[in-house]
Amino acid sequence: MSANLFILHGPNLNLLGKRETSIYGSDTLDIINARIKDCATELGYTTRIEQRNAEHELLELIHENAGQDFIILNPAAFTHTSVALRDALLGTESKFIEVHLSNPHSREPFRQHSYFSDVAVAVICGCGARGYEFAVHTADDYLRRASAVFPAGAGIQKLKPGCQPSLA
Question: Residue 100: beta bridge partners?
C-alpha cells in the first residue's frame, strides 16, 4: 500500500536514552525512528518523522502535514495540557494514533488525562519503544480497511511478512 505516515514526537523525546531510562527505556530517538522507518518501509509506506519541543512548532507541523494519510503522535507532556494540538488535529481532520512509551494511567494523577485519546483512532501506551511499531501496524490495518470500504486504484495488497515488533 502506498501511503504517507507522519510521525510526530513531542517535547523532551529528543532526550530518550538519557532521561529517566527506568520509565522510558534506553533506546534513543534515532534508534526508535530507524525502527519506525524500517517497519513502515516494509509495509510500503513513506514516512516523515519530526520531533519538536515547542507547542507552536508542533501546531505548524500538524497544519503543514494535513494531507498525510495518517499521523502517529506522541504528544508527550502536551498530552495533559494542549487543547491547541487537539484542535489542530480536529481542524485538519487528521486520522491519528496516540502513542506513549510509558503507561500514563499507572503514573501520577496529572498524567492520567489525555486531550487526545477520545478523538484518536487508537491509543497505544506502556509498550515502550515497541509501541511505535504497533502503531505503524495499526495505521496499516486502518488504512487497508478504509481502502477496502472505499477502494481507490489497485485495492488491497497482501500484507508483507516481517516488520513484526520484537518482544526483546
Answer: 125
**Catalytic-role residue among 9, 56, 80, 100:** 100
Active site residue 142: no
Supply 49's cell numbers.
Answer: 518523522
> How many C-beta atoms lie closer than 10 Å to residue 56's C-beta?
9
Q: Comparing C-alpha atoms, which of 113, 17, 13 is closest to residue 73?
A: 13
Residue 56 neighbours by CB under 8 Å, 6+ apart: none
Q: Is the residue at 168 inside a domain?
A: no
CA distance 112 to 104: 5
pLDDT digits (tens, 9 = 90+) for 56-89: 999 999 999 988 899 999 999 898 878 999 999 9
Q: Domain range for residue 126?
A: 3-149
**What is the rounded distance in angstroms from the CA atom of residue 139 to the CA atom of residue 2?**
13
**Structural domain includes residue 50:** yes
Q: Determine whether 100 is an active site residue.
A: yes
Give the end-to-end CA distance of the chain in Å, rounded to a whole number.
28
